[in-house]
């Protein structure tokens, strides 16, 4: 959960600002995607630390997920 990993929501606010500024998402969608990104990063890091997947595979999956979330319209 992003709230557990980012209790003050600083990471989500940062992600939201980046998504609005560089990817043109409206603020409401950017906040949703920003929270997803934070959660995905925490999950990927946990999987990597438990040696559940190779780092390269996790990075590729994160990039694909973020690209999809940024380019898919609601």
Q: Secondary-structure map with pairings?
A:
Elements lengths: L1 H4 L4 H14 L3 H23 L5 H17 L3
Helix pairs in contact: 2-3, 3-4
Structure, explained:
The protein contains 4 helices and no strands. It is mostly helical and 74 residues long. Helix 2 crosses helix 3 and helix 3 runs antiparallel to helix 4. The two termini are 22 Å apart.
Largest sheet: none
Q: How many whole angstroms does the radius of gyration measure?
A: 13 Å
Instruction: Characterize the overall form.
Output: flat
Distance between the termini: 22 Å
Residue windows where pLDDT falls under 50 for at least 5 positions? none
Write the element-wise H/E pattern from the N-terminal end onward. HHHH
Mean pLDDT: 86
- Provide the helix percentage: over 70%
Our count of helices gives: 4
Residue fraction in strands: under 5%
Tell how many strands the DSSP assignment holds.
0
Q: Structural class from helices and strands?
A: mainly alpha
Question: Which descriptors would you attach to this protein?
Answer:
74 residues, 78% helix, mainly alpha
Please outline what is shown here.
With 74 residues, this protein is an all-alpha fold.
């Amino acid at each position: 959960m992003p709230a557990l990993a980012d209790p003050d929501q600083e990471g989500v606010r940062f992600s939201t600002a980046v998504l609005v500024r560089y990817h043109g998402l409206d603020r409401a969608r950017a906040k949703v995607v920003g929270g997803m990104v934070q959660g995905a990063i925490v999950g990927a890091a946990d999987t990597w630390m438990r040696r559940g997947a190779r780092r390269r595979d996790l990075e590729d999956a994160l990039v694909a997920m973020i690209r999809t979330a940024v380019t898919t319209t609601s």
